[in-house]
Every structure is written in structure tokens, then in C-alpha cells.
Amino acid sequence: MNLAQLSRRHVLSLLAVGAGAGAVAACSGGTNGSGGGAADGRIRIAMLQPPRSGLNPLSDDAFKLSRWSTAETLIVLDADGNALPGLATEWVREDDTTWRFTIREGVTFHDGTALTAEQAAADLSFAAAYSTPPRILDGTDLTAVAEGNDVVITTSSPDPLVPQRLSSPQLAILAAAAYPADLSPDGPVDPKGHGTGPFVLTEVGGTATATLERYEDYWGEKAAAAGLDVSYVPDGTARGAALRTGEADVVEAVPVSQAATIDEALLHEVPMPRTATLYLNTRSGAFADHALRAAARDAIDVAGLVTTMYEGHADVAAGLLGPALGWSAEQRAWGSEAWAGADGVAATGRAEGARAAGTVPAGTAITLGTYTDRPELAEIVVLIAQQLEAVGFTVTQDVREYAQIEADALAGAFDAFLLSRATVLDSGDPVAYMVSDFSSSGSFSLCFLQDDDVDAALAIAAGLEAGDERRAAIIEAEARILATDCAVPLLHERVLQGEATGVTGAERDPRERALITSATRLA
Predict the structure, then answer these.
(1) Is the pLDDT of residue 231 over 70?
(2) 3-class secondary-structure state, position 466
(3) Residue 23: which pLDDT band, with cuts at 50, 70 and 90?
(4) 198 and 87 in contact (C-beta within 8 Å)?
(5) What are phi and psi of 273, to 5 degrees?
(6) Mean per-residue pLDDT for 159-164?
(7) What burial class does residue 445 get, using C-beta atoms within 10 Å of its C-beta: 0-12 exposed, 13-18 middle, 19+ buried?
(8) Is the pLDDT of residue 138 over 80?
(9) What superfamily would CATH give domain 71-191?
């Protein structure tokens, strides 16, 4: 993309303002009306995606409940992924497979019933036995029983991340009335009026709106805002217009294309634990040759991609893990410098076994794939193809919807596949992602890596409890993976969060668990 094309994107974003105006009206409805939230102490929120499962807390909709501070978990995580007290005040690991959590006293659910260890254990047991258990429990055989004011968690095998697992919004603790009377494992779970947070979910308007009120009997600091009026606004142009015109106070995921039309003081960049990575097929084809993988690594001008396609709203990759995991740069021997780059220097010597680029034989053909669900990837892949062709590869591009292309990617139909990948899952820890993508037995291995050193490094990291020792082992595993050049991390994504003038205390959370808290208010 040249400068003329970049300017065209800005022009198109300006022309799109009028097109999105009709959808903005959704943001001005609800209790608050269109006159702004400050007068009545309410906060209007424009959210990216509507609920997919009727706000069932055992689905991904749980993250909405968490971002509205209506449902809470036993454990919360700090910015580094360390476990902190939530509805549990303390915990201890009694042996390799047993943990004991003490339940906070004086907490009531929104329906007035008291939080007890029995209810917390029942909630966790229901989640573990659910027909589609929360993904945080994948591969984990968990049981929970109440003993006095404690919940005792037992796992079938040693699991050093049990506290982190219990921080997942999908394991929020709700009142007994939230669950089906017969405890059917596929029955509906209703969070309305059944959480413990500073806001009560009082109205659910399907896939259009939600309304929350301040919970006056909250166990912690009472909410500064009187309530929340939520609208779901999937159209990015409309979300940008809602912020620009004052129809919303807090706006999720303002598109980069809208940034030029909005006062920059209203936009806040949040680094995401998501990395755009080029996966190279090590099992067959051209990239079974490590020297050719290194040649592909050095051919890509990552800084140029960030400047042109993301208009600077992304970070050149320093590795698989980005700024959202602040400790990663501190642990790396090469700090926060880029791993790959068109200068051909960045990767050399940064990890044991890093390979110098080889010469690409004339006519070396590769198939490069990606998907249209993330439009920026479909644009980036064109530039990557040009850069690979410039060093001698002959590139065929294959771009489809993700649902249509995933099976082929997992079957090894591509020599290279561009993917935007979340690098931490619900536990806030990247080991599961690394094992899935890069171990010999990985369930999502697009590069089909079989490397004993990588497997050994991942096994060491997986066996350590959360803390500095585990983080050091994770970075060692990252270095081993990068040394194989099976994956070329390109850039770490950011999201633009919109906050109207006068909004204070809104959370800018890379893990997208928190947004509105007790401290969030309008001046």
C-alpha cells in the first residue's frame, strides 16, 4: 500500500460517517435517552458484539457480564496474570491435586441470598458437568466440594494453574436461582439478577440492549455510576459515530478507519494478547527446508505492514508474546526489539539455533492462505506475497472465510498461513497456546512442528506454578520455537477504546474481562 492508498482510507472513513449515523440511534436509547449520561449518573456503552447465547455465563457471553461488573469469580488476575482475591479471600495448595479456597463472608447475591461455600461448590460442579463445559476446563477433570466456609478443588492430575482457571468469567459464581431447577446439564443459566457485582443486570433486550442498576448492598466499594445502558453496535462506523457525536460514553473497539474522524483525546489504545503470525509448514513443501523458512522470515517488512495497514495502531512483533504481557520483554534476552524484519539482521543469533537465510531456488512455489473474517489480514497477505516473490518465491494466494479454510489449514494444505492468534487463553497464561500450536502433539498445529527441544521446554514450563520461574521457562520455550522459524510473528494488535470527555475509571483491559467497575464515573 502506498501513501495515496493510505490517504484514500482516511477519505473513505470520512464519507462513511453519514452512512453509520442511522445505526447510532441504538446507543441513545434505554433509560438514559440522548442527552448524555452525566446528568443522571448513568453510563451508556456501545459494545462490539451482541450476545450469542442469551448471556449464558458458561459461554463466551460471560465476558460481557464480567465487563459490566455484574458477575464475579473466586479469583481475579492482575496485569501480569498473578492470582488475587475475588470472592475467595485466600487459598492454599494442599497437595499436587488438591486446593482449598476460603469464601468471602458478608457477600449477597443480587436476589438477596447469601454467598456460601456450598453454592460456590455447586456452581463449579455444574460448570464441570455442563454439556459444553467452559473451555478453561478443557482437559481438566475438576471436582468441587464444600467444607465449612471453604471450597476444596480436586483435579485428576497435577495442575499448577487452578487459581488462574478459577478467574475465568465463565466460572462466575451465581445464585442458586440462576440454574435450572432440575440442574439439567444442558439447561439455561440466567444471570439476570443473580450475580454478586456492583451492578445488577435488570433488563435483557435480546441482541439489542441490556440495562444494569447500581447494587446498593454490594460487598465492596459501591458503584459511582447509577447504572449502565448497553447497546450492541456491530457496525464499526456506527460505533465511531456514537463516540464522535456523544451518543455513547464508552465504546468498544473503534475501527482504525474511524480514528481520523474522532478527537484523539477520546481514543485509548489497548495492547491485546493477540499476535498476527505467519505459520510455515515444516512437514512438507518448500518450508520443510529451514533455510527457506529463514529466507521467508527475513523477506517480510513488518514495520511497513504496521505503518501502512494498521496506520501505526499495532506493535512490530518482538516474539510470539507482545506488550499485553509486560513481563515478556523483561525476560527476553533481546528485549522488545523485533524478531523478524526486512533488514535480515533482527533474527540472527537471537535464539540458540536461529538460522541464516538461504537462497531461494528459482521457481520455488508456495501457497499462502488467510481468511476474510479479519479484513486486515486479507490486505496484509497481498503485501506479504509481494515481499516473498521479491526474494524468489512463486506465491499462490488462497483467501476464504475462516469457516471454509480452517480444515484445509489444519490438514496442511498451505505452505504458509497467516493467522491472528490469541496468545493467552482464559487462564491468562500462554503455555496452553504454545502447546496447542507448537508441540509435537499440538491440536492446532499449522506448522506441524516436531522438535524435541521445543517439547521439552514446553513440558518444563507447563509443570511450574505461576510466577517468575514459570515466566522464564515460557520465554525459553518461546526462544526454542522461534529458533525453528516455523512461525514468523509479525505484529501485536491493539484495540482502540473510546471514552467520552468526563469518563474516568474505565478499565483498559488487554484480556477484555473488565471495562466498567465501581470506580467508573462521568464527571
Answers:
(1) yes
(2) coil
(3) very low
(4) no
(5) -80, 55
(6) 93
(7) buried
(8) no
(9) Dipeptide-binding Protein; Domain 1 (3.90.76.10)
CB 228 within 8 A of CB 209: no
Which of 6-20, 229-243, 322-336 is predicted with the least confidence, judged by mean pLDDT? Answer: 6-20
Instruction: Please count the residues of the chain.
Output: 523
pTM: 0.81
- Of 86-100, 174-188, 362-376, which has the strongest mean pLDDT? 86-100
User: C-alpha grid cell for residue 126?
Assistant: 455444574
Mean pLDDT, the chain, integer: 88
CA separation for the pair 157, 171 (Å, rounded) = 20
CA distances from 291 to 68, 279, 369, 409 (A): 50, 15, 21, 22
Radius of gyration of the chain measured on its C-alpha atoms? 24
User: How many helices (DSSP H) and strands (DSSP E) are in the chain?
Assistant: 13, 19
Distance of alpha carbon 485 from alpha carbon 473, whole angstroms: 19
- Whole-angstrom CA distances from 437 to 115, 394, 442 are 40, 26, 6
Of 237, 236, 249, whose CA–CA distance to 34 is shortest?
A: 249
User: What is the model's pLDDT at position 13?
Assistant: 41
Rounded CA gap, 73 and 59, in Å?
15
Distances (CA, A) of 255 to 236, 261, 374: 6, 11, 12
- Tell me how far apart the alpha carbons of residues 195 and 182 are, in angstroms, rounded to a whole number: 20
Cα–Cα distances (Å) from 40 to 34, 226, 246, in that order, read 12, 7, 15
According to the 3-state scheme, what is the secondary structure of 194-232? CCCCCEEEEEEECCCEEEEEECCCCCCCCCCCCEEEEEE
Per-domain boundaries in the chain:
71-191, 271-494
**314-324: average pLDDT:** 92
The three-class DSSP label of residue 165 is helix
At 461, list the grid cell. Answer: 514450563
Task: Return the beta strands (E) in 96-132 as ranges.
Answer: 98-103
What is the grid cell recorded at 71? 458477575
DSSP letter, residue 414: -
Kindly list the distances between the CA atom of residue 399 and the CA atoms of 418, 419, 490, in Å, as whole numbers in the listed order: 10, 12, 18
10 Å CB burial of residue 316 (0-12, 13-18, 19+) is buried
Contact 421, 274 (CB under 8 A): yes
Q: Could you tell me where the beta strands, DSSP code E, fall in 114-258?
A: 142-147, 150-155, 199-205, 209-214, 227-232, 250-254
State the alpha helices, DSSP H only, in 391-515.
402-410, 431-438, 452-462, 468-484
Q: How many degrees, rounded to 5, is the angle at CA 370 between CA 368 and CA 376?
A: 120
Cβ atoms of residues 487 and 279 within 8 Å: yes
Q: Please, what is the angle between helix 236-244 and helix 3-24, to 10°?
A: 80
pLDDT tens per residue, range 501-523: 999 999 999 988 999 999 999 98
Out of 3.40.50.150, 3.10.105.10, 3.40.1080.10, 3.40.50.300, select the CATH number for domain 271-494.
Answer: 3.10.105.10
